[in-house]
Amino acid sequence: MAQITMIEAITMAHAWELEHDPSVVLLGEDIGINGGVFRATAGLQQRFGSERVQDTPLAEGMIAGMCVGMAAQGLKPVAEIQFMGFIYPAIDQIVNHMSRMRNRTRGRMSCPVVIRTPHGGGIRSPEHHSESVEALFAHIPGIRVVCPSTPARAYGLLLAAIRDPDPVLFLEPVRIYRYAKQEVANDGKALPLDVCFLLREGTDVTIVTWGAMTVETLKAATQLAAEGISAEVIDLATISPIDSEAILESVARTGRLVIVHEAARNCGVGAEIAAIVAEQGLYDLQAPIQRVTGYDTVMPYFKLEHDYLPSVARIVDAVHATFVD
Amino acid sequence: MAQITMIEAITMAHAWELEHDPSVVLLGEDIGINGGVFRATAGLQQRFGSERVQDTPLAEGMIAGMCVGMAAQGLKPVAEIQFMGFIYPAIDQIVNHMSRMRNRTRGRMSCPVVIRTPHGGGIRSPEHHSESVEALFAHIPGIRVVCPSTPARAYGLLLAAIRDPDPVLFLEPVRIYRYAKQEVANDGKALPLDVCFLLREGTDVTIVTWGAMTVETLKAATQLAAEGISAEVIDLATISPIDSEAILESVARTGRLVIVHEAARNCGVGAEIAAIVAEQGLYDLQAPIQRVTGYDTVMPYFKLEHDYLPSVARIVDAVHATFVD
Amino acid sequence: MKAVAEFKIHYVQMLDPSGQPVADLPAFAHSRDELVKMYRMMVLARTFDTKAVNLQRTGKLGTYPSCLGHEATHVGAGAALRPEDSFAPVYREIGTQYWRGVRMVETLTYWGGDERGNDFSGPKHDFPWSVPIASQTLHAAGAAMAFKIRREPRCALAYVGDGGTSEGAFYEAINLAGARKLPVVFLVVNNRWAISVPIEQQTACATLAQKAIAAGIPGVQVDGNDIIAVRDTLEQALARGRRGEGPTVVEALTYRLSDHTTADDATRYRQEAEVKAAWKIEPLIRTRAFMAATIGWTDADEQLLKTECAQQVEAAVQEFLAMPKQSSDSMFDYVFANQPVRLTVQKALARRYSGKGSH
Amino acid sequence: MKAVAEFKIHYVQMLDPSGQPVADLPAFAHSRDELVKMYRMMVLARTFDTKAVNLQRTGKLGTYPSCLGHEATHVGAGAALRPEDSFAPVYREIGTQYWRGVRMVETLTYWGGDERGNDFSGPKHDFPWSVPIASQTLHAAGAAMAFKIRREPRCALAYVGDGGTSEGAFYEAINLAGARKLPVVFLVVNNRWAISVPIEQQTACATLAQKAIAAGIPGVQVDGNDIIAVRDTLEQALARGRRGEGPTVVEALTYRLSDHTTADDATRYRQEAEVKAAWKIEPLIRTRAFMAATIGWTDADEQLLKTECAQQVEAAVQEFLAMPKQSSDSMFDYVFANQPVRLTVQKALARRYSGKGSH
Ligand SMILES: Cc1ncc(C[n+]2csc(CCOP(=O)(O)OP(=O)(O)O)c2C)c(N)n1
Ligand SMILES: Cc1ncc(C[n+]2csc(CCOP(=O)(O)OP(=O)(O)O)c2C)c(N)n1
Ligand SMILES: [Mg+2]
Ligand SMILES: [Mg+2]
User: Fold this and answer.
1) CA of A81 to nearest chain D CA: how many angstroms apart?
2) Of A117, C84, D136, D161, whose CA is between 20 and 30 Å from C52?
3) What CATH number was assigned to the domain covering residues A197-321?
């Protein structure tokens, strides 16, 4: 078993599913011979042909709308939106059709679609290339939002997303596409959706995060451990629906909650997690909840992006704050 | 001073501003001779001509993109999106340009645009006509989200929105367009943005809501008063940015918080309010926060819409729950 | 200057407004059965339509968009489609749907505010009603892509209105369909109005068929009040699609004789004279005249047909009125196939308050 | 069948690839000053471009999109515009911007990851760079609407790529512009590639100029490597706009000689032979040949110009490298004119962590 990066794991999952399910069709801008701007589909068109792995004209609303039509007629489209900042033209189709086709037709038609898109910043990209607007989609009923944090989870969760009978928005954290390699068995085994993953056990504070921010969070946890603070780190993985049981259970044990995400704070997914605990776990809280998030500003162009992204220092300080108040 | 409905107050505010600011231009589908499907612009094209009050071709992305261009060249466009369910094609322009033009150009250009759109359900409308997705826009930096709850507030807040140097999404609660009449002076006086309004003073519980849900909430407060529970009712009015100071101050006095909104619960604006209090007002809370919201389902087609919308009974029960736990 | 590309848009008419043939007619126009079947469906659609408007007036339906004046286009398209083709409607096209097996009670259920109206008992592979203007054009293109990938000789058909041709989605759909040679037909119903906006305000184009040129595909204009021309033109376009020769844009010229919907009042924005003139060229008159001249359709036939249609409609209305409401559970049961815990919890909550309304 | 509409798309070329005139030339093509000014700007753009690519390679710039091969189109458009017109670029059009007064240091600032690069010291009414493909076409239409409402004799110009013509926004913009007769020109730069997708995959259209037909407006194709033809065609189109005669679509046929951006590797998807052939018809060669033949442009002139351009570029690079970074405050100071409390609080927080990076 080779050590592979997240992007390679994603390619591998695609290949597995293309091979085992003839109804799977990949589509997107530059995903064919070019293999995608991040190489997520490298070699797949060569291997599976230009109908199963399709380059599309340049139109995201079209991609999403095509997915609705293809899925309603029995295919399982897996679409790539080149960057999350370009998903906006697709929102109409995602909200008004894809995520509610099952509901609108009382189950007669459905949309087993996966929309994959790079998520977040930190790699010196041009304007509009560093968005992390998962909250917009988490608010939409009828679509799941998933974000892996390691190669293995990318492989297993992408398989799960493709096999799921409903639409899934699959967010790929660009900062860690090639961050660390991991052994990933190409066994076609999916990981479960709708549950989070425990990345590190702890007893003093629960830190919930997802995607690329797991890196800074785990670093913070290590740093905290050195000071004698035992942090439990939870990777949300499925951002919507949230596995609130697991979070509440952890907070019940630790008594403290810090939420870390890259997106803007206002009405971010962190707010929902805080709200769930303030409703159902209030009496477990020994200190105010802390959110460490992007600011309520436009993600700055890259010279300042590391001033925007939550840092290890901010996470550590937020945990400290839960011990002060 | 005549008693007028909210929709009449909106027309009046438009007329005032068209008369006093030559840079104001109204545009939208069917807003001209037809006066808008809800009659918000009735008579205005006849009075101000078809350039100041323009019918557009049928394309919401176009409307928003035109607003960006017009505003960047010195006009103050006020656009109507016919229903909030049709705002999705406009999101790309709103997020990627309108709300960040000032930031992207370091203030060289800006977008003093108002986008008005009917908000919410409850009037037996067709599919996609009853959306209340304010949370999507509240998450976007650089745009304000405002929602009035009475004719007078509609008049004053719409004037404020048009005069604001930055974009404002102005949500008009359809259920109360013609719900109650009120005396509104046509004096061109704007109300402040970024602050909430105290609708009813109380000492035992704070209920925060906005738009049409103020009606059910005030009814619930009356009912609760009869039982001896004194509820303070806050109308958020500016949904983003949230006036957290006012909410925290109220909760500090009452010790209990219930949030009521029509939109789906998951990652709704209620989550942000709960999160703010769980962070900055935790020690004031004598009971878990309660959210009374739409369910995490597609807004049902109208036969069941009243099973979806938060009811007085649900609000009352939620308040009771803050006294039980 | 060198001309590097040239285009022509043609107009097809077979019956003039008085029912006189003005071109060679296709075979089906010589078949009594086919003519009666088509005419019957037009009369049924119109009978249903009148009834539905009345039901709205008495509070039994919500907002309802009439199909008055569009019957030749809708039924002609229905007749041109094969059962295995896939059809993406907007919100008026009952004439097409009924031909394909959708039941009238389903239409009533839908406009009565109940999602079950989209669960057609008829063609399971037809798309539900689509209110967000022009969005359905992409669904048809997607369906066509599925047919193409699976090598099925099927074609998709999407409707779009004159107003709908201003939405970017429409152009994205036709451009993609052209680029990938998809088996799909885009039927632009130019009824001259998009609510209160007349076609002249919608676009500077002389025809909507010429929008096809922007996709590099054929576009043709047809008299949308002439069911023979509509059916024949669409049969050809659909056959092209099924043969793998690519997409077509067909513009059907017709007129919205009604208000936009029951929530609209067209007298606010359009002239009585225009509507009066349009009544002179509406589709039923000429079909009936043609049938009288060619297959001896009599007043008695007409009367019998009308009675039958009225009875059928009435039966559908009764079935509709007797239908029990969905339970509040139904809000939750179709959001996902695999219901998340959160929804199960909310479903129980909703049950507790169900029927108590918002007060 | 009756033809109800006919269209032709014309192609304009004035200098062939070897620099031979193939049509009557406009007055400016006989002016030494104008020719030198245009050529100078093309050489400057190319000099800057090479430097910028190198700066990216050494980590001084982020991803940079080269303009190599587009110089005639970009500079020709710049020369056709008047200062008071408004211009909406995509991301490559430095040749147009520099003509209008944008400074090279601003380009470097922008692609160096700093918003100040959009705060042009030059034409304050020009739009910033626009990465979301085709979105800027609507901004130009909006600007044109402002000009029209204020009765100003100004015209807006929007660029869009061949790939960009697949986005709905583009069609919405041209359709609106046609319907409202707006003073705006849409300049479609057909460089045959949208990253890895060749034009044949993007659309079934023979020309992109014909997209104009879907908006009911004129469309014309021009040799985009021929600066005389580009400038003349655009001058006419812009003048039409300023005279209130409505919008035009101009398709400029050129070729992207570079990778898509510095983040791209075009050898993965396109043939060396195609690129080689394109180098034979690129814009500088023919302009220089034409100048040599008509105004006696010499090798010495050429050498001097190149040295001057190199110096100017070098000065801009030095200015860029010496620019201090923005403070973290700058993230907050332009979100709103009236800063909400929340942002003031966050601004203080950001200051505390500023410069500490994400670790
Ligand atoms: C995206 C979108 N925007 C606006 C509306 C509101 N609306 C419903 S019908 C309509 C006019 C449609 O006109 P047209 O396409 O000509 O179809 P017709 O009603 O004439 O059949 C409008 C604006 C909508 N349903 N969807
Ligand atoms: C809406 C949107 N989708 C995708 C992208 C990513 N992207 C950047 S450039 C490009 C290709 C553009 O091609 P074209 O319009 O021909 O312009 P060119 O680069 O050739 O000048 C793509 C897909 C984007 N910037 N915006
Ligand atoms: Mg119409
Ligand atoms: Mg290109």
Assistant:
1) 12
2) C84
3) 3.40.50.920
- CB-CB: which of D4, D209, D214 is closest to C211? D214
Q: Is residue C3 domain-resident?
A: no
D230 with D309, same domain? Answer: yes
Yes or no, beta carbons of A55 and D357 under 8 Å apart: no
Residues with Cβ–ion distance below 5 A, ligand 4: D 161-162, 191, 194
Examine the domain organization and report whether D60 and D103 are in the same domain.
yes
Q: Are residues C258 and C354 in the same domain?
A: no
Q: Which of D4, D8, D206 sits opposite C10 (nearest CB)?
A: D4
Superfamily of the domain at B3-183: Thiamin diphosphate (ThDP)-binding fold, Pyr/PP domains (3.40.50.970)
D69 with D211, same domain: the answer is yes
What ipTM describes this predicted complex? 0.98
How distant is the Cα of A128 from the closest Cα of chain B, in angstroms? 7
- Does residue C210 lie in a domain region? yes
Judge if C258 and C344 occupy the same domain: no
Do B125 and C115 count as a contact with CB atoms less than 8 A apart? no
Task: Provide the number of structural domains found in chain D.
Answer: 2
The one-letter amino acid code at C306 reads K
Looking at the fold, whether D202 and D349 belong to one and the same domain comes out as: no
What's the average model confidence in pLDDT over A77-96?
Answer: 98
**Given an 8 Å threshold on Cβ–Cβ distance, is C346 in contact with B34?**
no
Residues of chain C in contact with residue D10, where contact means CB-CB under 8 angstroms, are 1-4
Domain housing D348: 327-359
Chain B CB within 8 Å of residue C194 CB: yes
Using a CB-CB distance cutoff of 8 angstroms, which residues of chain C are in contact with residue D179? Answer: 201-204
Nearest CA to ligand 2 atom 6: A82
How far does D121 lie from chain B, in Å, by closest CA? 10
Q: Is this structure's pTM higher than 0.95? A: yes
Beta-bridge partner residues of C186: C158, C249
B298·A268 Cβ contact <8 A: no
Task: Check if C260 has its Cβ closer than 6 Å to any atom of ligand 1.
Answer: yes
Which pLDDT tens digit goes with each residue over A217-241? 999 999 999 999 999 999 999 999 9
Average pLDDT rounded to a whole number, residues B303-322: 97
Q: pLDDT (tens digit, 9 = 90+) per residue, A245-298?
A: 999 999 999 999 999 999 999 999 999 999 999 999 999 999 999 999 999 999
Nearest to A318 by CA among A231, A192, A194: A231
Whether A74 contacts chain C with CB within 8 A = yes
What is the count of residue pairs from A and B with beta carbons less than 8 Å apart?
Answer: 153
Task: Give the CATH number of the domain where residue D174 resides.
Answer: 3.40.50.970
Nearest protein CA to atom 17 of ligand 2, as residue:
D161
Residue nearest to atom 7 of ligand 1 (CA): C133
Nearest CA to ligand 1 atom 21: C161
Phi/psi region, residue A164 (left: phi>0; alpha: psi -120 to 50; beta: rest), is beta
- Give the residue range(s) of CATH 3.40.50.920 domains in chain A: 197-321
Residue C110 lies in a domain: yes
Is the model's pLDDT at D69 over the cut of 80?
yes
Tell me, yes or no, whether D20 and D117 share the same domain.
yes
Question: Is residue C1 a part of any domain in this protein?
Answer: no
B102 to chain D, any CB pair closer than 8 A? The answer is: yes
Considering the domain architecture, whether residues D333 and D187 belong to the same structural domain is answered as no
